[in-house]
Every structure is written in C-alpha cells, then in structure tokens.
Amino acid sequence: MAALKAFFAVPTLAIIALASAAGGADPALVFSGEDGTTWDLWRRADGAVARMTVQLDADSPATATDGRLAFADASGTVWVRALDGKLTAVTGMPTPCAHPAWSPDGQQLVVACFRFNNRQDDGALWLADLESGAARLLYDGPGLQKSPAWSPDGQRLAFVSGFRLTPTRVIEQIWVLELAGGTARRLIEGEAAAVNPAWSPDGKRLAYASDRGDTLDIWVMDLSEGRQLQLTHDPAYDDDPTWSPDGETLAFQSTRGGELEIWSIPASGGTARRLVAAGESGLRSARSPHWPVQQQEEAR
C-alpha cells in the first residue's frame, strides 16, 4: 500500500493541446512516458513522438473516437481533456481512482476506484455519466477490481479481478460483466494470471497479458470459439495490449529492449517491432499505450 500512496501524490497540472489523428495508416497512439522527472502523457503519430503534458504524473490514458482524452493523475483524480484542451475532473466517486475506459459512444466512463481496509487492497468499478456529471457504483466484487475495457457494442465490460485460489494465493484474472443484467463471469479458467484485457474493434477477440508461460506475454482469445493464441514468446515483460483502430495490430509495453518501451506485433502473429524507444525525445521509459476506442459499426 505504501507504493500506491506514493504514486497518488498531488501533481502540478499543465497540458499542451495537440491535434488528434485517430485514423490513417499510422493512427495516433497515446502513452505514458517518463523523462527522469515525472510520468507525463505522450503521443506518437506518423512516426514522431511528442509530449502532451508537463509535470503531470499522468497514467492510464484512454482516447475516445472523437479525440477526447481521459487519464488519471498521481492524486487518483480522473480527468477528461476536451478537444480545445480544457481539463474537467470526473467527480462523484471515491478516490483514488485510475484506469478510465470510454463507452463506445463517448458519453460515459468506467473507472476503477480503490480503498484500503485492514491492510488489504480492495476496489470497485464506477460508472460516470459525462453529460450529467452523475456517478454510480457499477460492480463491487471481492478483492481488487481494475483495468475495465468496454466491448465495442457497449453491452459488456471486461475487467481484472483478484481471484483467491487458496487462502494465501490470489491470482488476477479476467472477468466479463453483462451490463444489462449485472452478472459477471470469469472468462479464462486456470491458475495463471490474465490481466489488462482489450477488445478488438469488431468485438470478436480479446487481447490480454498472461504469465502461463512463466513470463508475462501477450495473448489473443477468439471469443466465439475459445481459441487462444500466444503472440509474444520473449523472456521479457510484455503487458498492457491495445488494438489499432483497424484491428490488424497490437501495441504493448515491453522490457525486451532493456527498458520499458512500446512495441507492436501483428494481431495474427509475427515479428514484434519497437514503436517508442527509450532515449527517443528524451524518454527514459514508456508504458500504457492506447489507441482510440472504435464504435463497432465504424470498425466493420
């Protein structure tokens, strides 16, 4: 818990407005980067990397289809950056919060909010309506709920929950919440961890990271047939996948280059390549990549 308390330190806010480029051959990728002082939001588009925020200690970026940006700062406040650069705090939820996820229509956010009881970390998922400003508890299961991801059709929510395998062993695994009925089910069976789910733009596949091969690698699950494909086989740490808007590529964070960087790999399998390198534009580390959310009808 001490590490989490250190992370949620109050930052100084400043933001640089940049034009959005959600589509194209090289769509804009937002990520969190560290230059030796703070973690700020950065953007990669058309092969160039540029800083978006200054002295923010920002993480968990999520981009809506229209270019609006949601993120969490180091105090545990979730913010939305409008197209004109204006920042609005998402309120009505217990803090600290992180991991904002856009609804496909861009009208709502699901966030993970944390609490610390009797030295045990715990947390729940909250739903914020951006037009009305109202927020409500969406799902509160045992343990720590985090990393929500909205399905492109808006009907389901994938998220990570701590699953107690034995009295002394907790494994984080992926669950799916049916938003209409409120029921949740564990998606992937077994004793390995499965974290950071990401829906494909057509909603037919789910990318995630798992340590079933002793190291954390990127996997893709076919949701209709249950088939699972291991995309990365590197002894390094590969985590936090995000789909390109056309569904052809996955970006992810990796230590395979010696530092935490952003890499990509074809969604059907193939050779990984570096997208954002340590040392580029003054960066020391890069993590939490995110391509824009796509509505299902736009992705087809």
N- and C-termini, Cα separation: 43 Å
Q: Tell me the CATH superfamily.
A: TolB, C-terminal domain
| Strand arrangement across the biggest beta sheet | 3-2-1-24
Helix percentage range: under 10%
The tally of structural domains comes to 1
Number of E strands: 24
What percent strand?
A: over 45%
- If you compute it from the alpha carbons, what radius of gyration comes out, rounded to the nearest whole angstrom? 18 Å
N-to-C SSE series? HEEEEEEEEEEEEEEEEEEEEEEEEH
The class by helix and strand makeup works out as mainly beta
Provide the residue-averaged pLDDT: 86
Tell me about the largest β-sheet. Answer: 4 strands, antiparallel
The number of helical elements comes to 2
CATH topology: Neuraminidase
Spans of at least 5 consecutive residues with low confidence: 1-25, 295-300
Please report the first level of CATH classification, the CATH class: Mainly Beta
The CATH architecture is: 6 Propeller
**Backbone shape:** globular
How are the SSEs placed, and which strands pair?
Layout: H1 2-7, E1 29-34, E2 39-45, E3 48-51, E4 59-63, E5 69-72, E6 78-81, E7 87-90, E8 97-102, E9 108-117, E10 120-129, E11 135-139, E12 145-150, E13 156-166, E14 169-178, E15 184-186, E16 194-199, E17 205-210, E18 217-222, E19 228-230, E20 238-243, E21 249-254, E22 261-266, E23 273-276, E24 285-290, H2 296-299
Antiparallel strand pairs: 1-2, 1-24, 2-3, 4-5, 5-6, 6-7, 8-9, 9-10, 10-11, 12-13, 13-14, 14-15, 16-17, 17-18, 18-19, 20-21, 21-22, 22-23
